[in-house]
Records
---
Amino acid sequence: MEQQQNNRGSFSNLGFILAAAGSSIGLGNLWKFPYLTGQNGGGVFVLVYLIIVATIGFTCMLGETAIGKYTKLNPLGAYRKLSKKFAFVGALGIIVPFLIVTYYNIIGGWVLKYIADFIMGKLGVMVGDPAGYFGAFVSSAFSPIFWTLVFVLINFIIIQAGVSEGIEKMSKILMPALFVLLIIVVIRSVTLPGAAAGLEFYLKPDFSKLTMATVSAALGQVFFSLSLGMGAMVAYGSYLPDATNIEKTSTIIPIMDSGAALLAGFAIFPACAAFSVDVGAGPSLIFQTLPTVFNSMPGGVIWAIVFFFLVLFAAITSATSLIECPVSWLIDSKGMKRRTATILVCIVAFLCAIPESLSLGELSGLTFPTFNGAMGIFDFVGYIAENVLMPAAGFFMCIVIGYVWGIDNFEKAVTNNGQFPFRTKAFVTIMIKYVAPIAIFIIWLQSIGIWGLIFK
Ligand code: PHE
């Protein structure tokens, strides 16, 4: 049943790198990385983040891709094939991306709405009261849901075209375009008068700001940004031909992903300093702050449209990758046609987005208790996916590779039975068996609030 590979399509090497980079580079890089950096002390967060990318990030990227390439199955089938007992890890690889996509679509909708506003000449009105403008929009009942639907429809059209034609074609155009557009905005930003203070905040680590919370925020962000711990890379790896050097691809993809995140920081922090914008504005940083920044530039509307289009491109390639996880499971395990599976996932994800979006307005009174305080539906779904389930999936992936599937089998998958050298074998072995699971477990305790209870 699970072996129906003929209708799965396959990737070329470059196609895989572009599609995997497309999955990784998204709202996590352009929207979340800058605001987390701003909230967590600037340069020191960037430093910790990069160290984690090079260690745990690289290791988990290689691990997930290897599992996908070896099993040629969706995450659930893949983990089941490695060990029946650990099939639940694969189930997380279907549930978690689905949960994420429900609110990812909403943020994608916000981006679309802002692009439409810029095009309709509302930048001037917006910057009069950016916080109020953003707040009024997200808390309204109809508008955010309408734009979420538009975002879902765009993704639907792309996905149902199939893996090689849909995602690969799109990545080949959108990824290089993304980097070009980002660099243009960076050049504008770093040449603004007063940019130097922002660069200093961004690049000079202030070690007095280094706390457990900084490390924990950075580790969570590495998982989210690299699309790890949720089966996305297992799904993509399953489309790879055996003769692919995945040690290489697992090096290139995190470098591209971090490059995009770093560029986003270079675009935002110098501009924040130049226009006295609060770096700690949080999740609203892009939506409230950038319009103000762009408005103060000559040709501001153009800059705003260009930048938000760039964010939209990145959000689409990530969202399609998230949707691909449950879709490929429905194709493989339930024998569904790609088109039917995509329609089903898109409709259910959209229906889930409705109460989530309403929870930022009408339904804000409806909250769920957690160790980290009561949360509305929107925050709660994000918390369950990113803070509770995602690190758990990453943790168990290490356990499965290190202790169940075994390093020897893992090595065979990485080297394609000796065809390629495995240069980082010693390093990856220590990471997978010890360092990564322990670090992830600690961050998990921190995220769900138990660490805080123990070390009061
Ligand atoms: N990595 C994507 C981003 O940075 C989000 C994502 C997570 C996409 C998991 C796919 C799977 O926006």
---
Amino acid sequence: MRRLSVVNLILEPSTRTRCAFEIAEERLGVEHVSLRWGEALSLAKGETLLDTVRTLAAMGVNVVVIRHPEVGVPSQIAATVAEVHVVNAGDGTGEHPTQGLIDLLSLRRRWGSLDGRRVLIVGDIAHSRVARSNYHGLVALGAEVVLCGPQAFLPPAGDWPQAALTTDLDEALADCDAVMALRIQHERLAASEVVPDLDAYRQLYGLTSERMARVRPDVPVLHPGPLNRDVEIDGAVADGERSLVWEQVRGGVAVRMAVLQAMAEAPLGAPAPATAAGR
Ligand code: CP
């Protein structure tokens, strides 16, 4: 098994993911360094991100955990710098695979199998990397996926071919086995997409106490965090009996430990040459 040396490159705000990776690295006894945007990195002096990663690799770093605001950056690094394993800790509106694994783990712990279960995801689906990673995982494990939100927050029909789309939350809640709320990704909205009235949004698309009182009591509620209490989910629902929110957070460290362990056992390829595409 390879001795791991990890750098967490956290180039967009994060609490859960960054801390869970750092705690996982501590618990595994793995050498690790965390770099955050705004910490006077040499990126600010014109160094490319790929050269930053090549620099880390030359020091013996063999795992880069990266959160980045742009879709596809982790894949680009993985395709270019062969000396490191790359773990996507969230790339823009792209993917958030380890969060998806946490959410699947929470549901597996509750149900055993996800086969045939109907999971409703409600909120700002269009800008959510968490929704996309959940979609792939849920479909792979045999669950049905229903996506709900205002039309502007739903993906184009056909983009997520195995999901059902709806704008009617109450109807969808009447017929689901679990529901996951997502926050509005304000930082990713175009001016034309800004929600002018959050209270009106809550009335239509929030998991309010009143709404959830009408839902089967065995339907668990998930939320990947960060919570916007009393917008997409009422505080009383997030803290209530059906909530898996804090179990999701607890699972975050174990999932990251498992992912890092897999990195220690996975082969690394030969170094890739620095090409124009790889600068
Ligand atoms: N769920 C999640 O990714 O949270 P953070 O942005 O706090 O890491």
---
Amino acid sequence: MDKHRILILGGTTEARSLAARLAGDDRFDTTLSLAGRTADPREQPVPVRIGGFGGAEGLARHLETEQVDLLIDATHPFAARISRNAAEASARSGKPLLALRRPTWESKEGDLWIRVASVAEAVRRLPETPTRVFLAIGRQEAYQFSARPEHAYLVRSVDPVTPPLDVPDARYVLACGPFGLDDELELLRGEEIGLIVAKNSGGSATHAKIEAARALSIPVIMVERQEPPGVPSVPTVEAALAHVAHLFSGERKRGV
Ligand code: NAP
């Protein structure tokens, strides 16, 4: 009896957790797809394929040739291109798509957020006065801050920022969450940070810097998400499992 084939676009903790839950269910044949960006990826609970598909068209072709029954976009909320490709590939191939997206962080009293739509806008909204800026936006878009060499930067990322920023004062911290509140308070105080640039990723692993910023009254330039419209979306792994169960309930398996 054939199983339902599920392809998870991953690279996140949620994708890994979802894969682990589906791995134990013999109704499904689950594969996880990774971009191949991380130098030392963690071990995964299901078979993994690595590397791009060749745009939306390539992904649509892959869904057809691999006879995928459901595509789940569990990529990072700021992996915008692959999410657009997933939406387009689903439309082209007629294969259903589900997005698993953690809810965004909401600002609370005491937060000093400046909301922007892109990293480019964050660069433009930096103050005129030289400031010690904590860049917590990952490594891929950090280079854009080379346009503002008057500021001092502390850049934190999982993998190294290469090439480094073209500015006179930048230091780099390699670290992978989860981060705790006490450590974040110590970092912000110790480095005399005057401004944070963050992405509204949601989730708990990297939220402590937002709480620390609130406690210390440090402003945060918050880059908001740009997600493709019209894609069914769930906020948790549990909700994704429920959606999958519902989608395939009552449906006869292929080849039966
Ligand atoms: P992106 O800019 O949206 O995607 C760029 C290209 O990378 C895509 O067009 C696709 O190539 C390929 N790609 C991305 N994710 C893929 C996947 N899961 N499987 C196969 N190909 C994939 O993506 P990104 O921001 O570089 O992120 C890459 C990966 O890192 C994603 O898996 C994401 O979940 C993870 N990640 C991203 C961030 C972030 O802040 N952006 C943070 C943590 C983890 P083709 O067009 O050739 O198919």
